Input
Amino acid sequence: MSLLGAIEAGGTKFVCGIGKEDGTVLERISFPTTTPEETMAQVVSFFEGKGVEAIGAGSFGPIDPVKGSPTYGRITTTPKPHWSQFDMVGYLRSHFNVPIEFDTDVNGAALGEYTWGAAKDADSCLYITVGTGIGAGAVVNGELVHGLSHPEMGHIMVRRHPKDSYEGTCPYHGDCLEGVAAGPSLSRRWGVQGAELTKDHPAWEMEAYYLAQALMNYILILSPQKIVMGGGVMKQLQLFPLIHSQLQQLLGGYLQLDETNANIADYIVPPQLGDNAGLCGALALAKKALAEA
Ligand code: ADP
Ligand code: ZN
Output
């Protein structure tokens, strides 16, 4: 079985791994994200001499994942110092003569869950991360969704909770979904880190109120067969039943589907790849690169 290289390129840390086409990870390393020169030199030295036959990279964004575009392979307009316009694919190609697949971290995670995880029996799925930001990746009929660029499902508009006076953290939109429901908005609204709020704190009802609205929109637009929700905030597993019931209230019985009614607990689920979701996502991208080479 071929050896594959996986890069989970995060804004705070990079994780690199060597794995196989069945999704097993044989070796991994993690280091902080500093400048592209320093960080990418560590990536290259990790993979050198390991004999990987393809490399997949799932990256923080925004990025240009559209093959044939003049800026394909770059991290584009990130506010993260030094990384704006960094040509990730160009850099990797200059060091490794193997097929490379480059996509968003959440598209990678969606493909990983679709290939080996919670969505492996579905033809389409959505992976949503609720962490420092909110983002989602979609697999439709086996293909990751791209378009002009990639979807930005965290920045959608939501109806305000009647008891929420917090203005929102998004520098572009204020109270878009990410602005009111990502990890940093929890800590600013309630004055403590999300991880420190008790399980019965009203924060979770409000959090579910926002996430359920987002899911309603995603379901009505994309009709995914499975929805996987990960990221730091979703470690609060009590959110799942709250989201299920708020979503059912919002849908108002409009969709006559088992998935959104009796079986909703099997429809909107945590990642099966757990803390390996990001790295396995990059591994799934590498598998795709090899298959399409
Ligand atoms: P990132 O999005 O940066 O890749 P994470 O998915 O771990 O990383 O998300 C980090 C965010 O999630 C932070 O805002 C943090 O406060 C929040 N978070 C992490 N763990 C928990 C937890 N157990 N409960 C609630 N919020 C959490
Ligand atoms: Zn926004």
Remarks:
- The first strand starts at residue 3 and ends at 9.
- The pocket of adenosine-5'-diphosphate (ligand 1) is lined by residues 10, 12, 129, 131-132, 183-184, 187, 193-195, 231-233, 235-236 (CB under 6 Å).
- Residues 202-222 form the longest helix (21 residues).
- The mean pLDDT is 97.
